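Student: Send me a single protein entry containing the residue sequence and its fold in token form, directly below this note:

Tutor:
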Amino acid sequence: MKKLFTVLSILILSASYVSAADYDSMYDAAQPFPSKLFNDIDPFEDEDAIKYAYSPYPLFRTSAYLYFKDFAIEPGYYSLTPRKLKGEYYVFFKQGGKVKFIIPVAKKEATPVNFYEANLPKIKQTAMQKFTGKIRDKFYTISKDSMKVPPPKSLVNVDVEVKYIIVTLYYGEDKFTVLFRRTPY
């Protein structure tokens, strides 16, 4: 039984290593969005404004240029928004409510179970904040129509490899991987 477990674990680890090292083919397969959005406006932003009290998307700061195919993302703050357009997944880099860049997702996977509990920091509250939070929660159980849906949990990780910068966006139950080159060519 132990030998079977050892062999299976080696096969699983080697398969994940091979898929992680195959960034060249994933980068080549990722094609930019074929057209531009009308007035650089996210077509689904109205749904987000109605559903959530504030923007549910994580803020990402880059201090270096990120190169993808034939353009470069300038340093600055961007709101990362995953979207499905024309059957493909893309990550919108939004700045000031306008879509600046549309980057294709190289790989989409499911977020591991209990990922957010292990990686997101816990919110520290004072005794007064805990007390008022309990009163607020009790009020919202009485009148449910006054409360908007809480945004899904999200996290952005950046890994630097030899040739690529890998930006991983964890959003809700999905994990989106986007690849950028370290140099323009």
Q: What stands out?
A: The chain has one domain: 2-181. The chain has a mean pLDDT of 82.
